[in-house]
């Protein structure tokens, strides 16, 4: 569910990069799950002067979080992890806050960006 009007404050390039990386990561994670567990939920809305983005996906084996970001499980970490760093960069560019959590087999990303 998304209220697209709330996304007007982000540039097109940032919008594509943000949602492209968020959804790519979620799709990659649920592809490892049994078909009946492959769920992704996304909400975009405005609340109390903030653009709020919440995305979560089922994850039986959540990644380790290091400094608030998931640690890559790929062999050569020098060439991985750029997507989540890109998400963080975009959120910070708009003076927002990124929070990642894992709870009850759910991987959750919450983004708050002040409305401009």
Ordered list of secondary-structure elements with their pairings:
Elements: H1 12-30, E1 40-47, E2 50-58, E3 65-66, E4 69-70, H2 82-93, E5 97-103, E6 106-114
Antiparallel strand pairs: 1-2, 2-6, 3-4, 5-6
Helix pairs in contact: 1-2
Structural commentary:
The chain has two helices and six strands, in the order H-E-E-E-E-H-E-E. The protein is an alpha+beta fold and about 120 residues long. The strands form two sheets. A four-stranded antiparallel β-sheet has the order 1-2-6-5. A hairpin with a 2-residue loop joins strand 3 and strand 4.
The helix count comes to 2
The backbone outline, from C-alpha atoms, is: globular
Structural class: alpha+beta
Biggest sheet features = 4 strands, antiparallel
Multimerization state? single chain
Residue share in helix: 25-40%
**Unreliable segments of 5+ consecutive residues:** none
Strand content: 25-35%
Radius of gyration, whole Å = 14 Å
Q: In sequence order, what are the helices and strands, one letter per element?
A: HEEEEHEE
Chain-averaged pLDDT: 87
Strand order of the largest sheet: 1-2-6-5
- Spatial gap, N to C terminus: 22 Å
> Count of DSSP E strands?
6
Task: Briefly summarize what is shown.
The chain has 116 residues and is of the alpha+beta class.
